[in-house]
Design brief:
This protein is mainly α and 505 residues long. The chain contains 28 helices and no strands.
Length: 505
Amino acid sequence: MATARHLLLLRRCSITKIFLPLLSPHPLPIHKILTPSSSSVAPRFFCSDGLSDLRGRILLLTEKPSSFDADAEAIRSQLSDLASRLLSLPDGADPSPLLSSSPLFPPFAFLHLLSLLRSRPRLALAAFDWRCKHSDSLGPPIHPEEYAKAITIAGRERNTDLAADLLADARKRRTVSTSVYNALMAAYMYNGLTKKSISVFEDLKLDPDCKPSIVTYNILLSVFGRSMMVAPMEAVLRTVQESELTPNISTYNTVIAGYIAAWMWDKMESTYRSMEEGLVKPDNHTHLLMLRGYAHSGNLEKMEQVYELVREHVIEKDVQLIRAMICAYCKSNDPERVKKIEALSKFIPDEDYRPWLNVLLIRVYAQEGLVEAMERFIFEAFQRNTIITTIGVMNSIISSYFQCNAVDQLAGFVRRAEYAGWRLCRSLYHCKMVMYGKEKRWEEMHGVLDEMELFRFDRTKKTYLIMYKAYSEIGRRWEAETVIGMMWKHGFVTTAEVVSSLQLT
């Protein structure tokens, strides 16, 4: 009677064909089908596009008896226990013994198991391999979504050959669907294999049993957007708009991301405005994209406006965007940029160090003449073995020390920069000579010449002019004339120029 009642219920829900394999050769009570209302058994798939109706029917099937929820919870518990035992296996261990001894699970349960194993991609793929080998003798046939999930995992593991083999295997079993093609397209996209991803799209169009979905086109948009192929991306968007498919929020967000990658700020903003005026309204992800775009484009006013919309999310979850905003302030002329940079920097963990950002902050504080703060970031760069190779940054540091007349601090910085392998320049040594000359520290000024020779910086006409000016300004005529003689000796001045200068002195 129980079996007949279950069959009648299956017929009413129009899914007898889908679940009939569960009744033979290893029948399972139909009430043990995993309840899809639980978030843990309905994992999100980037490539899923046809399960909502199927899961809805499962929900109709399981919403009556109160014991169903308890049974579903028991199955979830069994899956969690199995996943824990699998995850405890050492790397490279065979999961087959544990999987073979586990009870049979209903449809979509293995999808949940793969999600639980996502922290160990190779283990998840080994488990799916076991599933493929035993699908004919144990449990229900493999569902296309299982292939899609396995292909996605293989793509994240950067094993695109395996991902392609899984699609081929799905074709052999006649279990291929649009979501399986989508998964392989996404796997190729994730690994930067643009041509292969497009090739999969062409194969999908030729498959008589499948047709591209909006998810397919969203992936294709992302493929072109990531490669900054704007014209093909816009062509795909027009195709979607002119078809029977309905663009969704992911469609427009992907297009905006493509414009940001190509630094096409006007088109980025026009797409955003069209969303505000259209049926598909911007969501939180849209605002995060726009915040990134405005930061990269240096549009501080609009960046700050969008930041207020997503402030809490950015502070709690997106340190990368905080760094992008700090970078925008570093490159700007905002009179309050230091104050704003320091306010944002509080949300970056101490361990989240980025060399490029440290160098930018060194330059900002140098430009603002804030020597103490500049030295703090310089010290951190030395501690973390960050090497500065940009002449512009070094010149900013030199100028900051010079403006504050901090010759001893400059000398200490030069010594550490020499030892750390930073980009040295003749300006470093010239600045030291000028500052020593102003303080009449002649011995140290002449010592700079030895440092220049040690680091293979030839003396130039400017080098001698610095010394000549230092001596002549305080009336030390004999030393000044000696410098002129050295300039003549090295060919920097002619005899006539020497005579003229001597007459002047």
